[in-house]
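Reviewer 2 asked us to include a model.

Predict the structure of this chain.
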Amino acid sequence: MSNSKIMIDIQNVSKWYGQFQVLTDCTTEIKQGEVVVVCGPSGSGKSTLIKTVNGLEPFQKGDIVVDGISIANPRTDLTKLRSRVGMVFQHFELFPHLSITENLTIAQIKVLGRKEDEARKKGLAYLDRVGLSAHAKKFPAQLSGGQQQRVAIARALSMDPIAMLFDEPTSALDPEMINEVLDVMVELAKEGMTMMCVTHEMGFAKQVASRIIFMDQGKILEDCSKDEFFTGQRSERAQQFLNKILH
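Predicted model (C-alpha coordinates):
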Protein backbone atom coordinates (compact mmCIF):
# COMPACT_ATOMS: atom_id res chain seq x y z
CA MET A 1 0.00 0.00 0.00
CA SER A 2 2.96 2.33 0.64
CA ASN A 3 3.47 2.95 -3.08
CA SER A 4 -0.19 3.63 -3.79
CA LYS A 5 -1.15 7.13 -4.76
CA ILE A 6 -2.93 9.32 -2.26
CA MET A 7 -6.62 9.50 -3.22
CA ILE A 8 -7.90 11.72 -0.38
CA ASP A 9 -5.54 14.14 1.36
CA ILE A 10 -7.01 15.99 4.36
CA GLN A 11 -4.74 18.76 5.64
CA ASN A 12 -5.37 20.79 8.83
CA VAL A 13 -9.12 21.00 8.26
CA SER A 14 -11.07 23.06 10.79
CA LYS A 15 -14.75 23.93 10.72
CA TRP A 16 -17.00 26.11 12.83
CA TYR A 17 -20.77 26.45 13.18
CA GLY A 18 -20.86 30.06 14.37
CA GLN A 19 -18.74 30.12 17.54
CA PHE A 20 -18.76 26.32 17.93
CA GLN A 21 -15.76 24.48 16.47
CA VAL A 22 -16.79 21.08 15.11
CA LEU A 23 -13.49 20.09 13.48
CA THR A 24 -10.03 21.04 14.77
CA ASP A 25 -6.91 20.64 12.62
CA CYS A 26 -7.90 17.28 11.15
CA THR A 27 -5.10 15.79 9.05
CA THR A 28 -4.99 12.35 7.43
CA GLU A 29 -4.63 10.74 4.02
CA ILE A 30 -6.28 7.81 2.32
CA LYS A 31 -4.38 5.92 -0.34
CA GLN A 32 -5.89 4.21 -3.35
CA GLY A 33 -7.37 0.87 -2.31
CA GLU A 34 -7.36 1.63 1.41
CA VAL A 35 -10.43 1.07 3.58
CA VAL A 36 -10.40 3.56 6.44
CA VAL A 37 -12.99 3.31 9.21
CA VAL A 38 -13.77 6.52 11.11
CA CYS A 39 -15.23 5.90 14.56
CA GLY A 40 -15.82 7.75 17.80
CA PRO A 41 -18.59 8.80 20.18
CA SER A 42 -21.71 10.60 19.02
CA GLY A 43 -21.02 14.25 18.21
CA SER A 44 -17.28 13.69 17.69
CA GLY A 45 -17.31 15.19 14.17
CA LYS A 46 -17.08 11.95 12.17
CA SER A 47 -20.01 12.62 9.83
CA THR A 48 -19.00 16.25 9.43
CA LEU A 49 -15.47 15.20 8.42
CA ILE A 50 -16.66 12.71 5.82
CA LYS A 51 -19.07 15.28 4.33
CA THR A 52 -16.24 17.80 3.90
CA VAL A 53 -14.47 15.29 1.63
CA ASN A 54 -16.89 15.86 -1.23
CA GLY A 55 -17.80 19.43 -0.35
CA LEU A 56 -21.21 18.73 1.19
CA GLU A 57 -20.00 20.55 4.32
CA PRO A 58 -17.90 23.69 3.78
CA PHE A 59 -14.88 24.19 6.04
CA GLN A 60 -13.14 27.40 7.01
CA LYS A 61 -9.51 26.32 7.34
CA GLY A 62 -7.17 23.82 5.68
CA ASP A 63 -7.69 21.89 2.45
CA ILE A 64 -8.83 18.55 1.15
CA VAL A 65 -7.41 17.27 -2.13
CA VAL A 66 -9.31 14.44 -3.83
CA ASP A 67 -7.46 12.77 -6.70
CA GLY A 68 -5.46 15.96 -7.23
CA ILE A 69 -8.44 18.34 -7.03
CA SER A 70 -8.61 20.88 -4.19
CA ILE A 71 -11.98 21.24 -2.45
CA ALA A 72 -10.96 24.61 -0.99
CA ASN A 73 -10.18 26.07 -4.41
CA PRO A 74 -13.16 28.31 -5.30
CA ARG A 75 -12.73 27.37 -8.97
CA THR A 76 -13.29 23.67 -8.31
CA ASP A 77 -16.51 22.33 -9.82
CA LEU A 78 -17.88 20.55 -6.74
CA THR A 79 -20.80 19.00 -8.63
CA LYS A 80 -18.37 17.37 -11.05
CA LEU A 81 -16.15 16.21 -8.20
CA ARG A 82 -19.13 14.73 -6.30
CA SER A 83 -20.05 12.73 -9.39
CA ARG A 84 -16.69 10.94 -8.99
CA VAL A 85 -16.91 10.30 -5.25
CA GLY A 86 -19.74 7.95 -4.28
CA MET A 87 -21.62 8.82 -1.10
CA VAL A 88 -23.94 6.53 0.85
CA PHE A 89 -25.88 8.15 3.69
CA GLN A 90 -27.63 6.91 6.85
CA HIS A 91 -30.99 7.46 5.21
CA PHE A 92 -31.03 6.06 1.74
CA GLU A 93 -31.88 9.29 -0.10
CA LEU A 94 -33.64 7.43 -2.92
CA PHE A 95 -36.26 9.30 -4.95
CA PRO A 96 -39.56 7.83 -3.68
CA HIS A 97 -41.50 8.70 -6.85
CA LEU A 98 -39.02 6.94 -9.17
CA SER A 99 -38.65 3.21 -9.76
CA ILE A 100 -35.46 1.46 -8.65
CA THR A 101 -34.22 1.44 -12.26
CA GLU A 102 -34.90 5.18 -12.59
CA ASN A 103 -33.11 5.84 -9.29
CA LEU A 104 -30.08 4.01 -10.68
CA THR A 105 -30.02 5.85 -14.01
CA ILE A 106 -31.10 9.46 -13.39
CA ALA A 107 -27.72 10.80 -12.20
CA GLN A 108 -25.84 8.86 -14.87
CA ILE A 109 -27.97 10.52 -17.55
CA LYS A 110 -28.18 14.03 -16.08
CA VAL A 111 -24.69 14.37 -14.56
CA LEU A 112 -22.49 12.09 -16.68
CA GLY A 113 -24.46 12.56 -19.90
CA ARG A 114 -24.85 8.84 -20.55
CA LYS A 115 -27.39 7.54 -23.02
CA GLU A 116 -30.41 5.98 -21.34
CA ASP A 117 -29.66 2.46 -22.62
CA GLU A 118 -26.07 2.59 -21.38
CA ALA A 119 -27.16 4.00 -18.00
CA ARG A 120 -29.80 1.31 -17.58
CA LYS A 121 -27.39 -1.47 -18.51
CA LYS A 122 -24.82 -0.25 -15.98
CA GLY A 123 -27.40 0.41 -13.25
CA LEU A 124 -28.97 -3.03 -13.62
CA ALA A 125 -25.53 -4.69 -13.59
CA TYR A 126 -24.81 -3.11 -10.21
CA LEU A 127 -28.32 -3.93 -8.98
CA ASP A 128 -27.53 -7.55 -9.82
CA ARG A 129 -24.25 -7.24 -7.94
CA VAL A 130 -26.01 -6.22 -4.74
CA GLY A 131 -28.43 -9.13 -5.23
CA LEU A 132 -31.58 -7.17 -6.10
CA SER A 133 -32.19 -7.78 -9.83
CA ALA A 134 -35.71 -9.00 -9.14
CA HIS A 135 -36.70 -5.58 -7.73
CA ALA A 136 -35.78 -3.34 -10.69
CA LYS A 137 -39.36 -2.28 -11.43
CA LYS A 138 -40.39 -1.66 -7.82
CA PHE A 139 -40.42 1.64 -5.95
CA PRO A 140 -38.30 2.36 -2.85
CA ALA A 141 -41.24 2.07 -0.45
CA GLN A 142 -41.75 -1.53 -1.59
CA LEU A 143 -38.29 -2.53 -0.36
CA SER A 144 -36.93 -3.13 3.14
CA GLY A 145 -34.43 -0.68 4.63
CA GLY A 146 -31.54 -3.05 3.95
CA GLN A 147 -32.61 -3.44 0.33
CA GLN A 148 -32.96 0.32 -0.11
CA GLN A 149 -29.46 0.85 1.25
CA ARG A 150 -28.08 -1.74 -1.18
CA VAL A 151 -29.84 0.13 -4.02
CA ALA A 152 -28.16 3.33 -2.77
CA ILE A 153 -24.77 1.58 -2.95
CA ALA A 154 -25.53 0.29 -6.47
CA ARG A 155 -26.54 3.82 -7.51
CA ALA A 156 -23.25 5.24 -6.23
CA LEU A 157 -21.24 2.51 -7.99
CA SER A 158 -23.08 3.18 -11.27
CA MET A 159 -21.27 6.53 -11.43
CA ASP A 160 -17.86 4.76 -11.63
CA PRO A 161 -16.52 6.47 -8.50
CA ILE A 162 -12.81 6.79 -7.70
CA ALA A 163 -13.69 6.41 -4.00
CA MET A 164 -16.71 5.64 -1.83
CA LEU A 165 -17.78 7.49 1.32
CA PHE A 166 -20.15 5.79 3.75
CA ASP A 167 -21.77 7.86 6.51
CA GLU A 168 -23.10 5.37 9.08
CA PRO A 169 -24.76 3.28 6.35
CA THR A 170 -26.26 0.75 8.78
CA SER A 171 -27.36 2.98 11.66
CA ALA A 172 -30.96 3.35 10.43
CA LEU A 173 -31.41 -0.38 9.80
CA ASP A 174 -32.95 -3.18 11.84
CA PRO A 175 -30.27 -5.52 13.23
CA GLU A 176 -31.05 -8.37 10.81
CA MET A 177 -30.65 -6.06 7.80
CA ILE A 178 -27.23 -4.76 8.81
CA ASN A 179 -25.26 -7.75 7.56
CA GLU A 180 -26.76 -7.67 4.06
CA VAL A 181 -25.38 -4.14 3.65
CA LEU A 182 -22.04 -4.90 5.32
CA ASP A 183 -21.60 -7.95 3.07
CA VAL A 184 -21.78 -5.69 -0.01
CA MET A 185 -19.24 -3.32 1.57
CA VAL A 186 -16.90 -6.22 2.41
CA GLU A 187 -17.03 -7.34 -1.23
CA LEU A 188 -16.20 -3.81 -2.41
CA ALA A 189 -13.26 -3.67 -0.03
CA LYS A 190 -11.94 -7.00 -1.31
CA GLU A 191 -12.09 -5.66 -4.86
CA GLY A 192 -9.84 -2.74 -3.92
CA MET A 193 -12.34 0.13 -3.79
CA THR A 194 -10.98 3.13 -1.89
CA MET A 195 -13.38 3.57 1.02
CA MET A 196 -13.88 5.92 3.94
CA CYS A 197 -16.55 4.63 6.31
CA VAL A 198 -18.06 6.26 9.37
CA THR A 199 -19.44 3.31 11.32
CA HIS A 200 -19.87 1.74 14.75
CA GLU A 201 -19.68 -1.75 13.24
CA MET A 202 -16.42 -2.89 14.83
CA GLY A 203 -16.73 -6.40 13.38
CA PHE A 204 -16.67 -4.83 9.90
CA ALA A 205 -13.71 -2.67 10.94
CA LYS A 206 -11.79 -5.71 12.18
CA GLN A 207 -12.56 -7.62 9.00
CA VAL A 208 -11.73 -5.12 6.27
CA ALA A 209 -10.23 -1.86 7.57
CA SER A 210 -6.69 -0.98 6.58
CA ARG A 211 -6.71 1.79 9.18
CA ILE A 212 -8.87 3.16 11.96
CA ILE A 213 -9.34 6.86 12.65
CA PHE A 214 -10.74 7.59 16.11
CA MET A 215 -12.27 11.02 16.69
CA ASP A 216 -13.48 12.85 19.77
CA GLN A 217 -14.64 16.46 20.15
CA GLY A 218 -13.75 17.30 16.55
CA LYS A 219 -10.17 16.05 16.73
CA ILE A 220 -8.45 12.98 15.30
CA LEU A 221 -7.02 11.25 18.39
CA GLU A 222 -5.94 7.99 16.76
CA ASP A 223 -4.91 7.21 13.19
CA CYS A 224 -3.39 3.75 13.12
CA SER A 225 -3.62 0.23 11.74
CA LYS A 226 -6.58 -1.83 12.89
CA ASP A 227 -4.22 -4.18 14.77
CA GLU A 228 -2.79 -1.28 16.74
CA PHE A 229 -6.24 0.08 17.42
CA PHE A 230 -7.79 -3.14 18.67
CA THR A 231 -4.81 -4.53 20.56
CA GLY A 232 -2.57 -1.62 21.51
CA GLN A 233 -4.72 1.46 22.01
CA ARG A 234 -2.65 4.46 22.94
CA SER A 235 -5.25 6.95 24.12
CA GLU A 236 -7.40 6.44 27.19
CA ARG A 237 -10.37 7.95 25.34
CA ALA A 238 -10.18 5.33 22.57
CA GLN A 239 -9.91 2.59 25.19
CA GLN A 240 -13.07 3.83 26.97
CA PHE A 241 -14.92 4.00 23.65
CA LEU A 242 -13.91 0.45 22.69
CA ASN A 243 -14.76 -0.99 26.09
CA LYS A 244 -18.22 0.53 25.79
CA ILE A 245 -18.86 -0.48 22.19
CA LEU A 246 -17.44 -4.01 22.38
CA HIS A 247 -19.40 -4.94 25.51
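The mean pLDDT is 92. The first strand starts at residue 6 and ends at 17. We have added this to the supplementary material.
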